## 1
Amino acid sequence: MNTISKNLQLFWQGTLLSYKALFAWLRPVTYMASKVLMPLAQMFFFAFLGSFASDGKNVDFYVIGNAIQITAVSGIFGVTMSVGGDRDAGTLPYLFGTPSNRFMIFFGRAFMHIIDGAIGVVIALTWGVLLMGLDLSQTNLPALGVTILITTFSTCGLGLLMGCLSLITANVMFVNNFVYFSLLVFSGANVPIASLPAWMQAVSNALPLTRGIASARALAAGATLGDVTPLLVSEIGIGLLYGFLGYVLFAWFEIQAKRRGTLETV
Amino acid sequence: MNYMNLFRYWRTVLTVAEMSIRQQLNDGFILFAIVFQPMIIAVLGLFILRDKGSDYAMFVVVGSGLTGLWSSLLFVSGNSINVERWIGTLESLVGMPTPFDVIVFGKNLANVFQSLLSMVVSYILAAYLFGYTLSLTQPFLFVATLFLSMFAFICFGLTIAPIFVMYRSVQQWQNAMEFPVYILCGFLFPIALLPGWTTPVSYLLPPYWAALALHGTSTAMMPFEQIAFCWGMMILFSIVDLVIASQLFRVMLYKARVDATLDVD
C-alpha cells in the first residue's frame, strides 16, 4: 500500500513539475501564441481551404478534423519536450540515478498534456461554432468529450514514443514537426481516408487521431456513443501500444546509456 | 539603411548569402521549413483541391511555395539577428566596419533564395507524383514577378529581424504569425472568402501582392495593368520597409553601442 501511495505521489509530482518546467520559462502570452492562436490559425487556414474546395459545402469536415488534430500540439510537441527536456536541462543523470519507478516517471510526463490538449480542442471547437458555423446541434456532447479525451490520450502515446526518440537524436524539432504535419495528411483531418491511396490508408490506420477524428465526425452527424465505441476502443489500443513502445525504448535507452556512458552525448 | 551600401558592398552581400546557405542547409529545422512543410501543404492542397480540376495544380504549387517563403522569412530571417546574439557573434558583427544591415540583407537574400526550393519541390511533387501537366500561363512575367517578390520579401524581412531582437514581446507571437499570413495573403485560396474587414489588412502585407501577381501570371491570364499594379505595390512596400528598417537598425545599433543592452537576455 505504501509503495502504491509513493508511486502515485511520484507520478503526480513528475506530472506537475515536468509541465511547470516546460512552461515556466514562458509568459502567458507565449502560451497563448503557441498553444491557442497558432493551432486556431492552422484550423482556420484548412477550413477556408476546404471551404474554397467544396464551395462552402463541407466546412464542418475540416473544422472538426483540424480541431481534433490540435491535440497533436500537446501530444507531440508538449510530451516530447517534457521527456526530452531532461536531457536538455541536464537532469537526466539525476533522474536515472534515482531508484524511482520508471513507469510512473515516464507516463507522468504525458498526463498534464492530455488535459492541456483536450482543453485546446474544446477551444478550437468553440471557435469553430462561433466563427465557422460548425453545427453541433445533433451532437452527443458528453460522448464528444470522451472522444476528445481518448484521442488526446492516444496522441500523447505517440508523443511518448517521439519523446524517447528525442533522447537519441539531435534533430528533435525536425522529427516532431515532420510527424505533426504528416498527421495533417494521414489522420484524415483534411482528406477523407477513403480517398487516399492504399499505402497511405495503411499508414493512417496505424496512427492515433485517425479513429478519434472519425468518431468526432460521426458524433457531430448524430451518432451515439455506442456507435463510435469500436473506434474509441481501437484509439485507446493504439495509444497504449505507442506508449508501451515508448516505455520499452525509454528503458532500453537507460540501460544502453548507463552501460556505455552515453547519457548526454547525443 | 544606406541603399548605396548594397551596391558598394555587393561582394559582402553575396559572401554572407553563400555562407548562410552553406550553414542553413545543414539545419534540420530550416530544411523542414523550406522543403518538407511546403511539400506536405502541397500534398494537402492537391488532395483538397483536386475536384477543382487540373488547373489548380499550378495554383497549389505556387501557393505552397509561398508558404515556404513566408515560413522561412518568419522563422529564419526573423531570427537572423537573434541567431548571432545566441551564438555570441552579434557584438563582433556590430563592431566591424561593414554596415550591419548589409550583412542582414545578405542573410535574408540567402533565406529567400533557398526558399524558392519549396516551389521547386512542390512542382516536382505535383508533376511526377500526382501526374499533373504543369505550365505557366505567362512565364516571362512570372519570372519577373518572382524576382520582385524576392526583393519585397527580403525588405520585409529586414523590418522583422530588428523588431524581434528589440521587442521580445513581439517575438513571442512568432509561432502564431505563420498561418494568419497564409490566410490573409491568399496563398492557397482567394481572400474573397474571408470576412470583409480583413481585406485592408491583406492589402498592407507585401506577400499578398506577391501571391496575387504570382498566381495571376502562373495560372491565369492576368492583364498586364493588374500585374504592373502588383509590381508597383511590391516596390512601394519594399521602399517603405527599407525606410522603416533603416530606422529600426539605427535604434538597434544605438542600443548595442551606447546602452550595451543588445545581448542582454
## 2
Amino acid sequence: MADGGDVPVIGDKPVIERVAARPAEETYRSPGEWVRKNLFPTPFNSFLTVAVGLFVLFSARGLLNFVFSEERGWDAVRTNLRLIFTHAYPEEQYVRVWVCVGVVAVLAGLSLGLFASRGDGLRLRKIANGLNAAAVAIAGGIVLREPSVLVGADGETVRDGDGVVRQSFAEAMTDRWGWWLVAAILAVIALALRRVPERSDGSHPAVRALDFAVGALAVPVISAWVYPWGHYAFADGEFIAEPGRTVAMSTKLPWTVMWVLAVASLIAGRWVRSRVDERALARLRVVVSCTWLLVPFVLYWVVLRDPDLDWDRILTVDMPLALAFGIGGGIVLRWLTKDGIGEFGRISAVALLGLAAFHWVAAFMGWYPMLQKVRISFLLLAVMALLAHNFSGEAAKRRRLVLAWFVITTVFHYFATVMNTPSTVETPTEALIGGFAVTLVVAVFTLMLSFPLGVVLALARTSRLPIFRVMSTAYIEVVRGVPLITILIFFVVILPLFLPANMEISLFASATLGYTLFSAAYLAENVRGGLQSIRRGQYEASDAVGLSTVQRTVFIVLPQSLRASIPPLVGQVIATFKETSLLAIIGVFDILRMANSVIPAQTQFLGIKREGLLFVSLVYWVFSYMLSKQSQRLERRLGVGER
Amino acid sequence: MSKRLVRRFGGLLAVLALLGAACGSDDDEAADEPAATTEAADDPAATDATEVELVQADDDLLDTVMARGELKCGVSGAAVAFSETQPDGSQTGFDADYCRAVAAAIFGDAEAVEFVPLTAAERFTAVQTGAVDVLMRNTTWTQGRDTEVGMDFGPTTYYDGQQLMARAGDGFTSASTVADIDGAIVCTNAGTTTEQNIADAADAAGVSIQLNTFEDFDIVTTNFINGACNIVTTDGSALVGRKANQQPDGEEWVIFPPTPISKEPLGPTYGQNQSRFADVVNWTVYATIIADEKGITSGNVDARLGDGSLDAEAVRLLGGDGELQTAMGLSADAFHSVISQVGNYDEIYSRHLNPVGLSREGSANAGWLDGGLIYAPPAR
C-alpha cells in the first residue's frame, strides 16, 4: 500500500534515471505522509475522500451485516456443496473427479514450470503491506458489523416489543475474539516480514510471485486439517452430525494430494527446464500444449464416464476400420505427395472431397447406411489430401504428413468409439454431471471447438474468393444479430424435433453446439481485427520468398494477428465462461440453477436463495479473475502493445 | 498418358472401395462429433437413423421401455415436496415416487428410473420427442394440452387449486373470500395462469386489487415477508409449503378461500396414442389408490397376502391369478412390487406432503369414502 502513488517527481533522483532503471528504488514514506499526499492534498479532494469513504463504509457494513446475519441460511450452501459442484455424480465414483483435478494440477504445474518467466519477483515488503491491509480490513469489519442477535437457550432468537434483542457493543467485540486473533496473526506475520534484512547487495528481499501464489494455496489446504469447514453430511434425508464427515473432512486428503502434485510437477518442470537446451525445451512445450488439448476429451469421455467398452465390436468393427483408414489413407497421402504428381494430385484430392461430400448427401437422402465416423473419416482424409501438395518433395516432409494422418485417425477413431459407448457410471438423473462441473465442461469444449471455427471464419471473411467471403460474412452477421438465449433455446427445444427418429442429442451436447456457433462468430470478428492489423509488406515479403497461400497464412499472418488480438480474445473467453450461466434457463442443472431453483426447493431450505446466489457469484468471479490475470501475463510475455 | 491416368484413378477407386467395404453397414452410431454425441448407441431399437420422423408412432412405447430396462421419467427437480433434488443428487417427493411406482410395475424394481429434470418450457417437447416416457411434473390437465399438444393425461394424483395467503394480523381468516381483499396488493409470479385466475376472480367478486408480479415465487414470498405485498396467490400446495417453512416467528399466515379459485388437477402425462403404456401408468396409479382403500401398505402387504385376510379383488390385483396383469404385458406380481417397494397412495402422500403441512383430511385428495375425489375403477 505504502508503495503506491509514486508520482515521478519526489526524491533527489532525476526522472530519466528512474525510468531507465526499471525496478526503480521506491522512496519509502511514512503512512501519515502517504495519507496526506494521496487522500487529503486539497480541500476538494479531502471532501471527495470523505464522501467516497463513507459510501464504501456503509456498503461494507451492509454487506457484512447481510453475510454474517443470524438469519442467513449458509447451511443451505454448505450442505449442498456436492450438488453445487457436481450435481448427482455418485459419491463412490468421486475418485474419478479427483483424478481429473489431479491431472489438471500436474499439467498446470508442469506448464508453469516450463513456461513461466521469472519476472521481478514479489518484494517481501509488498507482501507485508498486503497482510497489513488484510488485518486492518478484518479489524474494520469486526467493528463495522452490527452486534449479533441474542439467542435463547431454546435456540430461538430473543425478542422484545421492538423486535430482536442484540448484544451490547462491548459484548459483540469480545465475542468476535476469533476474528481479532486472525487479524493479530496477520499483523504479526507482516511485522516479521518487514524485519527480514536486506540482501548483502542492497536489494530488497523478494520471492517469486508464482512461489508465493502456490504457497498461499497451501493455507486453505492446511486449514481443512485444522477446521471442519462445510456442513455435516446429509444422508438418508437427515442431517447426521457425525464428526469427521464434513466437506472439509472428506476432502482434506484429496486436496492435499492435489497440492502436493501441483508443487511436485512445478519443481519437476523447473528442473527439466534447467537441464535441457532451447530446442528440447521448445519440443517439450509443444508436447505439453498438445496434452492440454487432448486432456478435456480424455477426462470427460474416458475418466468421468468410464465407457463400458464392447470388445467384440471393437475388435470386429472399430479397430479394423481405424486400421483401414490409417493405412489406406496413409498410402493415398503418400502417393499424393509424390514428386511430379502435379495437377493430377489436386484433381484426385478434389475427387476425394466430392466422394466425402457425396456420403453426406447420401446420408441426408437415406440412400445407403454408413457409420457416421466413416463419413467423417472420409471428410478428414479429403481435407488432408487437399493440403498434401504443400508437403510434396522431401522424404521427411512426406513422412510427417503421413504420421500426422496416423495420429489424427487414431485420436478420432478412439474418441468416436469411446463417446458412443454407454457409461458405466450410474447417476439418478439423466445427466452425468451438473453444477459447476457442467459449467467448466461446456466452457472448455465450447472454447476448444469455437477457436478453430472462429479462425476459419475470419480467414474466410478476409478471403479473396467471393463464395467464402459471402458465406462467412452472412454467417457472422446472422449469428451476431441473434441473442444468445434465442440460439440456445433453438438448439435445445427445436433441434430435437428435426433430428432423425431414434437419434437423441443430449441437452449438454446441443447447448455446447449452440455456444460454439455463437462464440465462433464473435471470435472470428476478433481475429479479423488482428488480421487487418498485418501490414501489406508482410504479405508481399512472404510472396517474395515463395511461400504458398497456406504457408503464408499459417506461418506469417496468423501468428501475428492472433498475438495482436489477445485482449479481445480473452475477453471473449471470459464472456463465454460467464454466459454458460444461461444454461440455467434452458434446464441444464448448472451451478446457477442449483442456487436459483434447486436448493430453494428443498423442504429444509425452502426459499433460501440469496446465500446460494452470492456464493455462485463468488465462484464465477474467482475463475474470471484468474483468467483475466493470466491473459495479462500472456500479454506481457508476448509484448502486446509494446511492439 | 491417358492410360496412366486411368490406372491411377483405378487404383484410387480400389482403395476407396476397400475402405467402404470395411465400414460395415449398420448405422447405430448416430453422431460421432464431440459436440453432438448421443448415448443411444446401446439402444437396440436404434437401427435406422436416416428416417426422419417426429414421434416414433410405430414403436410400442411399453416394448421400447422394457427393452431399455429403465424408465425415463420427467420431473421438475425443483418442486417442493413433489420432486426435490437432495444434496446427494437423488430425487425425492410425491412425483418422484410415482415414477418409482411405474418402474416397479414394469421392471419389478423401483430404482430402475432415470429422472430427467425438466423446466416448464421444455416438458412438452420432451414428451413429444420421446426424451421422456412419462412426465410427472405438476402438469395441470387442461383441454388444450390434452387435445392440442400431442399428449395424453393419466388419472389425477393430486387435486390442487389456486388459493390466497395473507396475514391473520390484517384481519383475514381461513374462511375469508376473494370479496374481502378489496384494495389489497396481491403478488404472484409472472407468466402463469395464476395471474389471469386472480384477476378473473377479483372481477367476479367485484373488488379492485393491485396485482404485482415477480419473476418467481421465492421473490414473491420475500416481498410478502418484508411487507411489500398484502396477499400472495398461487397453487394451494405451494402456499402451504411456504407457510410451513417461511412464516416468521410472531406472525400468523392464513390460507383462503376454502374452495380454491381454480382447478389444477395434476397427474402423469405421456405421449399420444400409446395405449399399452398408458394402461400401465394408469393402473399403477389405480393400484396405489385401491391398496389405500383396502388398507394394504408396504409394511403389511406380504402378511395380509399370507393370512388370507384380503378380498378377491385385492388378491387379483396383487398377483393372485395374475392374468389381468399379464394381459397388460406386465408380470403377474407387478402391482405387488409397486405396493411393497413404494407404498400405497396414502403412504406416498403422507411421506412427502404431510411434512410441508398438506393434509389429506377434508381436502379433495381424501379417498372417495371420506368425501374426497381419489377414486379408482375396480380391478377385475
## 3
Amino acid sequence: MLFLAQDGITNGAIYALLGFGLVLVFAVTRVILIPQGEFITFGAFTYAALSSGTLPRTAQLACALGVIAFCVELVSIRHQLSIRRLVRAALLFVIMPAVIWLVAMIAAKYSRSVPANLAVSLLIVAPIGLYIYRIVYQPMAHASVLVLLIASVGVHLALQGMGLVFFGAEGMRAPPITEVAFSIGPLRVTGQALAVYVIAALLIVGLWLFFGYTLYGKALRATAVNRVGARLVGVRTVLSGQMAFVLAAAIGAISGILIVPMTTIYYDSGFLVGLKGFIAAIVGGLGSYPLTAMAAVAVGLVEAFSSFYASNFKEVIVFTLIVPVLLLRSLAVPEVEEEKD
Amino acid sequence: MTQHWPIALFAAVVAVIPFVPEIPPFWLVLLDNIGLAALVSMGLVLLTGVGGLTSFGQAAFCGFGAYTTAVLTTHFGLSPWLTLPASLLVSGLLAVILGLVTVRLSGHYLPLGTIAWGLSLYYLFSKLEFLGRNDGITGIPPLSVGSWSMIGAGSIYYVIWGGVLISAILTLNLLDSRTGRAIRALRRGHLAAESFGVQTARAKLLVFIHAAVLAGFSGWLYAHFIRAVNPTPFGAQAGIEYLFIAVVGGAGHVWGAVLGSGIVVVFKEVLKSAPYGEGQLEVIVFGVLLVLLLQIAPEGMWPRLSAFWPFARPQAKPRKASALPARAKADSGEGKLLEVEGAQKRFGGVIAVNDVSFAVASREIVALIGPNGAGKSTTFNLITGVLEATAGRISLFGNPIAGLSPQEIVRRGVARTFQHVKLVPDMTVLENVAIGAHLRGRSGAVSSMLRLDREDEARLLAEAARQIERVGLGAQMHQLAGSLALGQQRIVEIARALCADPVLLLLDEPAAGLRHNEKQALATLIRQLRDEGMSILLVEHDMGFVMNLAERIVVLDFGTKIAEGVPSEIKTNADVIEAYLGVAA
C-alpha cells in the first residue's frame, strides 16, 4: 500500500508540474497545449542522449524550427523592416539555436555532470517552445479557443512524427539524477523521488509567487483576461505568449528529465503522460495552481492503485475519471458567453 | 430550398464510376474508404461545424458500430442486415449516455471531454476479452443479397455510397427545417433561440446522437467491408482525422464532408507511397497541413469551391400556406397584464435591480428609461426568465412567472428583442425570423429528415415572411442576417419576436441605429400592434421617440425606481432631471 502511495505521489508531482505548464499557457494565450507531451519526450531524449555522451538530435530540431520561425518573422515584419528588428530576429531564431547546438556538442563530448546535462537539456528544449509559438500560434493569436485547440492537435501530430524521425521507434532510459537512497521505516526513498518532490515544490512556489506577486506575472495574467485591454495599458502580448511557451517547454522538459530515469520513454510516451497532467489542469479549471497540484496527486494515486488492482483497465479508469470532473466544472461555471468568432 | 438536380447528377456519376472500363480495383477501395470517412465527417459537420460542439471522439462511435456487428455476426451468427439496426442502436444509445454527460460541458471543456472518453473507449476495446483485445475479431461475414456476397470493393461500393447519399439528403433535410434552425442557432445565438422556446440542451443532444448514428453506420459498413475489426482504427488518432476531414472540407457544409474525405484519403494514400513510408512523414505532413489550413482557410475548401458555382440559389418566396392559429388578444385596455412587485436582483454584492415595482396593462405602451447602468436590461432579463430574481414577484395575467425558464415564459406570450442584437449571422433573415415561430410548429427531427414536415414548415415560413413584410424588410428576406446594417438587424429581431405571437412585446432599444424616418415607421408599427391588442414594454434612450410613443414611463436609476407617470409628468420631474443631468449648481 505504502509503495503504491509513494509511487502515486511521485507521478502525481510530475503531473502537477505538467498541469502547471498547461495552466500557464492557457491562462496567457488561451492555447490548450496538447503538444506539452512532446516537450516531455524531447526533454527526456535530450537528457538521455547527453548522459550517454551522444549529441541530442533535438539540438538540430531546435535549429530547424528556429530557421522556420526566422522566415515567418521576416514575412510578418517585411513592411516595417529595420536593422534592429532584423538583428533581434536573427539573434533569437538563428544564432541562439546555433550556439545551443555548439554547447550541446561540447556537453555531449565532455560533460558527465548531471546538473550540467540537465541545464543543457533545458537550454535545448525551451527555445523549441518559443519557435512553436512564433510559427503556429502567434499568427492566429486572436482565433477562438476551439480553433487554437485544433491547431494544437496538429502541432502535436507534427512534433510526434518528428520525434519518430529524429529518435526512432526505440525507447530511451537515463541514469537517475542521484544514486542516493535511504529508508524510512518500511519505505525506501530514492534520491530520484526526492528530486522530483523538491523540483516540483520549488516550481510550484516559484510560479505562484511569479504570478501573484510580480508585475510581470500580473501582466501575463492580464493578457489572458483581455488581450486588447492588456495592450492598451502597455503589456506586450506577443512577448507574454512567447514567454509562456518558453516556460511551458522548460516545464515539460524538466518533467521528461525527471521521468526518464524511472520509466522507458518512447517517441509517443509524452502524449499519455501529458494527458494526465491535463486531467489535473482541467480539474483546476485551467486556472488554479493549488487545485491543479491536488488534482495531480489524486490522478497519480488513482493511477497507481488501479494499475495494481486492475492493471488492464488503468488507462480506462484514469481517462474516464475526467468526464465527471469536467461535468462538475462546467456546472460550477455557468456558461454565459456566446461564441463570437 | 436545396437544389435537387446537382445531387441527382452527383448520384449518377457515383453510380457510373464502377463501370468505367479498366478502372483499377484499388481506386474503388479508395472510393469505399472515402465514403466511409465521409459518413463520420458528415456527423461532425452537423456537430461541430453547424452545432459548434467539437468532438475528437467520433471514432469511438465507429468502433461501437463495428464491434456490435462483429460480435453479433461471429458469436451469434446473425445476418449482417439484422445487425444494422443493432449497430445504429448501440451507437445511438451510447451517444445518449455520453451526450447527457458531455454535451452539458461548456466551451472548451467539451472537446477535452471527448478526447478523454475517446481514449478511454479505445483502451476499453483493446482490453475486453470478448472483443478480442488488441487482436480484435476476424471472420466477419460479408454483406449478401440472396446468393450474391459483396466481397469485392466494387460490390459493397454501392451500399457505402448509397448510404452516403441518403445520409447527406437526410442531413440536409434536417438542417432545412424547424429543428434544423434550432441546431443552427446553437453555435451563435443560442441565448436568443432559448428565448423563443428552443430547448438548446435537447438540440445539442440530438445532433450528438445524429453524428454518433452516422459514425456507427460507417463502423458497421467498415466491419463488413474489411471483414475484421481491431481497436486501431477507432483510436484517438482516427478521431482527430475525422475532425481534420471536416475542417478541410468546410466544417459548416454537408458536402464539405464528402469533399474533405476525398482530399484527405487520397492525400494519405499519396503520402503512404512516398519513399519515407512507415507513416512517419504522413503524421508530420498531416499536422503541419492542419495548422496551415487553420491559419489560411479556417472555413475549409467547400465554400471556396462552391463560390465558383455558376447557378444562384433559388430564392423563392415561401409558398402560400394557411395561417398559424393565433393567441386571443385583449380587446380593451382593462386589466393588468404584467405585474412586477418588489423585484430585486443581486450579482454578488452589487444590487442591479432593487425593489422595483411596476405594471403593464393590456393594450398599453410602457417605456422603461434611465441612465446607463440603471438596471433596465436586467429587468428585461428578469421578466423573460434569462435571470432569476433574487426577491420579489413577477406575474403575467396574475400567474407568477418568476423562476420559469425563458422557454416557458415565451410560451405564455412574452417575446423580446435584445439590446445587443442576437441573430444567427449565417442564416437568412427569413430563417432567423422563423425561429421566432418555433413554438408554433411541432415537426420533430425525424419527420424533418423524411420531409413529412412540409405543411408545418410552409406555415412557419409563411408566417415569418408575413412579419418580415410587416416590419418593412421584404426586400432583404433572403439576405444573410449578418450582412444587414445594425439598425435593420434590430428590426429583424422585432419581426422574430412578432412571430412568437406575443401578448407582451419587450423591445430593448429598438430605435438605436435607425434613421429619422425609420424611427417614424417603427413608432407607427408599435402603435398599430398596440391597437391590435398587444402590450409593449420598451427600453429606449431616444427621449423624443419615447415621449411621443409611450403612454406611461417608468424611470430607473441605479436599480431603483425613481419615478413613474405619463410623459408630461416625467419631463418635469425633478428627480428624473437630476438623474440624467445632475443637480443644478
## 4
Amino acid sequence: MRFHQTLLFIIHKISGQRSENAPYYLLKGKKSGQTIQDVTYFQLHAFFSILPQLSKEDYDAAIAELINGNFIQLKESLVHITEKGIEALPQDKKVLLNGWQYRGKEQIFWKRIDLVVQTLSQFRANEKKFVPNQKDLATQHFVKDYLIQHNYREFNLSTDIKREIVHLLENPLLDDLHRTLFIYRLSGYKKAGLTWEQLTRYYQMTDLSIKISFLECLHIMLDNISVETNPRLVDLAKDIHIDTPLTDSAFKTNSLFEKGYTMDEIAKIRKLKINTIEDHVIEIVSTNKNFSISTFISKEQVERVLHLSNELHTKKLTIIKDRIPEVSFFQVRLALTKGEQIHE
Amino acid sequence: MNKLNEILQKKFGHASFRDGQQEIIEQMIDGKDVIAILPTGMGKSLLYQLPAYLMEGTVIIVSPLLSLMQDQVEQLKIIGEKRVIAINSFLPFQERELAIRHLADFKFIFTSPEMLQNEQFNRALKNLSIAYVVADEAHCISQWGFDFRPDYLRISNWLHSLNDVNVLALTATATKDVVEDIKNTLRMNNPFEYIHSLDRAAIAYEMVEVENQQEKMNWILGRVTSTEGPGIIYTQSRKKTEVYAAMLREQGISIAYYHAKMEQSDRILIQQQFQQGQLDWICATNAFGMGIHKDNIGQIIHDHIPSSVAGYMQEVGRAARDGKQAIASLLYTSTDVEHTFYVAMQDFPEEQDIHIAYQPEYAEVEQAETTTRILAYWKERLNEQETIQLFKQIKQKKWQDIQSFYSMIQNDTCIRRQLLHYFDQTLLEKPAHCCSKCRLDVTSVLRKRKDEKNNQDRLNWKNRLNILLPS
C-alpha cells in the first residue's frame, strides 16, 4: 500500500471521530493512552509504530495533498473521509503490515540478515576483509555467534539461506516490488545495495511509499518464518516477536495488578497520577482479552455504552458520557476498548 | 630483517615504510613525545598502530571526529586486530559499561575528548597501563585551527592527571601557531617533530573565475560530461548537492549526492558504491570524505571559495592517492567571499549570545549545541568582556582567512607555492603539471570520457540474489 493510501485507510476508520493528527501519532507509535486505545477502538493494529522516523512536515504535506485532492475534509477539528476518498480506498487489498506485533523490531531482523548475507557473499568471493554495513555491536555479535553456530565455513549455509529467502519472498501475498526492494537493499561482494533515494527514483514512488512496501515485506517474512520451512532464517528472527506488546510502564502496572493491588495503591506505589494508571489499564485491556475489568465497570454499564455507541455511530467520549452521566470517562473508554474485542 | 619491518610485513602487509614512518616509530618506542604533520593518505594511522605491537600496555587514541573513529576501528579489525573499541556517545549505555569494566582487554581504545570528562571512564583509565596517548586531528586543539573543539582543550588537564605518559600528536594541517598551541596543550616535552611536505605533486590546481551561479553549473556540466572521473564535487548546501546530481544524472552520469541529513544506512551505501566503482561521481557537502578509502579519485571540483586553506587541502587531498595525475578545480565568482563568510558564521556566537551566556538564568535559554559547548568552556576561564574580545578576534581571523584565500586565487603567484606558504613550508620541486597560474595545460591532465551511456538495467531480484550468493 502506498503512503497516501495507508493514510486514507486510517482516516476512513476514524472518520468524524478524531483529528487529522491522530494518524500521525499512530504511525509514529506514540505510547500515549489515547493512541493506544485508538488502536483497539478502530482496529488499527497494523499501522501502529510503522514509521517512527516520520517527520511532521512530511505528514502535514500528505494531509494537505489529501485535502486538496478532496479525498478528506476537516470539520470542527475532526477529519472526515469524502465519497471520493472512499472510492480511492485500496480495493480488497489485504493489509500486510503488523505494526502492533513488531514495533520496529523488524529492523533488528533486517540488520541481522543484511550482515549475514554481506558476510557470506564476501566469504564466497574469498575476500574476508570488508567493512560491515551494520555498525552496531549488538548486531555484529549476534551475527558472529550465528555464523559460528551454523558452520559458516560450509557451503551449505549460503545455499540454504538463499533458498529460504526465495521461499519467503515467493509468498503470494508479496509482489515483485516487495521482493526487489528486499534484495536490492542487501549488499555483497563488490555489490553495495541501493539507497532509498535510488529505489524511489527507479520506481517513481515517494520515499514513504517505498519504505512502507519494504516494511510490508519484512512483516510478511517474519509472519511466515518457521522452524519447518526456514531452519536457517528462523534463528535470525529470535526475540523479534513481542510476547506482551505493552509499554514498559504499563507492564509494571500490570505486574502490580497481578499481585492484587488496586488502582489507587498502584498510583501511590509508582508515584504516578491516577490518569496514567487509567491509560495503562486501557492499554492492558487492549492487549489482553483475559484481563478482568469487572472491578472497574459492571457488565450492564459496558452493554449500555456499547449499545449507545452503536446506535449513534460514534466513539466520541463526550457524546456518550452526556447521555449516561453516571459513568466516568474512564469507564466509557474501558467499555469501548472491551467492545472492540467482542467484535473481533 | 629488523623487528619493525617484520611487523610491517606480517601484520600490515606493506613491503616497506613510507617517508618518515620508521623514524617516527623509532622515536616513539624510545619513549619520546612526537608531533607529526603529514598529508592525509600518507599512512598516518600506521604511526600509532605499529608501535603498539612492540610496547606493553594499551594505546589511547583521542579523536574529535566520531565518524572517523568508527572507520579507524574497522580498519584495525580488517587487519585482524580484535582488541579494539571506540568508547564514545554512540556506544549504547550497557555496552559502554561492560567495556569500561574490561578496559584492560583492549589494545586500542578510541575515544572522544567529551568522553574523557566521564568520571567512571577516567577512573578505569587510571588503573590501566598505557603505552602512549595519541591526539588525532590535533589541530582541533588550537583555537586558531579551522576545526577548533573546545572540549579538546580539556585534554590538557586529563594528561596532567596521568603519570608521565608519552603523547603522539597527529595532524594533516598545521601552521606554526597551531603547532605551538598543540605542544603547549599536550604538555609535550621537547618533542620530536616530523613535518612532511604538505605538497601533493600529483594534484594540479585550476582556478576558474565565472560570472554567476549559472556559469558554474554550465562549467560543471561541460567538465563532468566530457572528462573522466572518478571525482567529487564539493558544494556548500545540501540542496545544491541534490540539484547538481539531478542535472548530471540526466546527462547519463553515474552520480549520487551525499550530505549529513541523509539516513546513516544510505550514507554507508553511497560510500561503498563510490569505493567499489558503481558510482563515478559524488556531489557532496564537506560531510563527505572522512574515512573514504578510494585511491583513484581523479578530480575534485569546488563550486565555492572554501572557508579555510586547511579544509581545502583536506578535501583536495582525497585525490590521487594512487599517485596518478589528478586535478583540483575551483570555480568562484567575485561575490563568493561574502557568501562563504556568511556560511562560516552561521553557527558562530554573536556578542549578544555571549552576553546571554553570562547571565545567571542562562540554562533556560536555547542556543545551538556547538555554541553552548564553546561558550560553556570559555565561561569557566574568561569574563564576559574577555570572551567577547576573543570571539571578535576569531571572527576577524576567519574573515582574513577567507579573504586571503580569495587573494591567493586572484594574484599571479603559483597556487601550489602559496598553499604551502600558508603552512610555512616552501616548495622544493615544481611538478610538470602545476597550476593555472603556471600555465597548466588542462587538456593534458584530463582524460576524455568514454562515451558510455549509463542506462540503468532493469532490476531483477532473482539474478541479484544469485550474484550476492553465487551457487
